[in-house]
Here is the input.
Amino acid sequence: MQNLFFATAGSQMIAVDSADFDGTNDKMERGSDLSGNADSKSGICSVWIRLDGGDGVAQRILTGSVTGGAPTNVLVEREAGNTFAVTGRNSAASDILFLRTSNTYTTAATWLHILSSWNLATTVGHLYINDVSDVDSGATILTDDTIDYTQNNYCVGSVV
Here is the structure.
């Protein structure tokens, strides 16, 4: 699984292949909460990813958790069923946000853009893959509650 970041060169935008994670034990760990982070009912997530392998295995893209790794109150992952999911939990570690794709995504040499946004105060959530809405409405959880974003650690590419 590769993550893609963009940089500017003058007035031109260029893609920079900056990291390659396997989604299970390769990771970039912050070791603390995100600067200026606050608990909230809303959020947005945008990720570019290329799946180089690992079909049928859960792969963590972004996690935020308390010391010791459990619970993970903020989670973006490709599940073992090859669907993408965004999960948010409250301070009691109850799922209050859950969005899953209805389509599956397997190994391919193409980039995918995952874009998700939510506002739990209005119980609205969106999940797009390459600018196309892809939400399994039967699996969606949108509870009017506050997501516990303030975590002791954040990690990209694996579980904390």
